[in-house]
Amino acid sequence: METKDILLELRTKHGLSQDELAEKVFVTRQAVSRWETGDTVPNTETLKHLSQLFDVTINTLLGSPLRLYCECCGMPLKDVDISHEKDGAFNEKYCRWCYADGGFTMDFWKQYGVTAGKERFDAFKQQLVHEFNALLCAEGLPEVEDLNVLSGDYINLEYRLPSGEKVKFLDDNASYLGNQLEGRNGRCFGIAGNMDFLLICSYAEDGREPVLVMYKKR
Fold this sequence. Notes:
Elements: H1 3-13, H2 18-24, H3 29-37, H4 44-54, H5 58-61, E1 82-84, E2 90-95, E3 99-100, E4 103-104, H6 108-116, H7 118-138, E5 148-151, H8 152-155, E6 159-160, E7 166-167, E8 175-182, E9 188-193, E10 197-203, E11 211-217
Antiparallel strand pairs: 1-2, 3-4, 5-8, 6-7, 8-9, 9-10, 10-11
């Protein structure tokens, strides 16, 4: 969709007239009319006002010309996943699990890095990389070079057991060290671990058809 169509749809969805929208974002009705006919687009400052008013990102208002990823964990970003500043404005650089209310969240791994020290944290990550690669090599899978902090509810896939029961092995409210590896035949491999276990899985695009490859206690 183009910006003109997106603005018209959002205004209509929120039950606002052109005059009412103009008043809320400090422009004239004629300016709103020109946006919706595609003659002009809002300037940067007005896009910020529209973003906060409609609770969507500027990227969305512009028709999502860029694919956004969290600069902290690498997660693909949709509007519902993007972080906010203290004033409610979107911060399109990070996901809401890594950054919130104007600062980085202190999840378990960041706390570990603070209390144990960066060198010890980096050493632990490298130990996990070594352990994962030993398992991946045994399975004939590609090697992992680095691990990112990933939110549980983003990577917590549901697997079907031989009995037909569906189970999840992770905690939606926790975070893990993991990564995604390119696989074969259009499938990817995901790895995730913490102090207690290592998990390797395989899945199709967008996490479909997940298969648990290995779950190993450390």
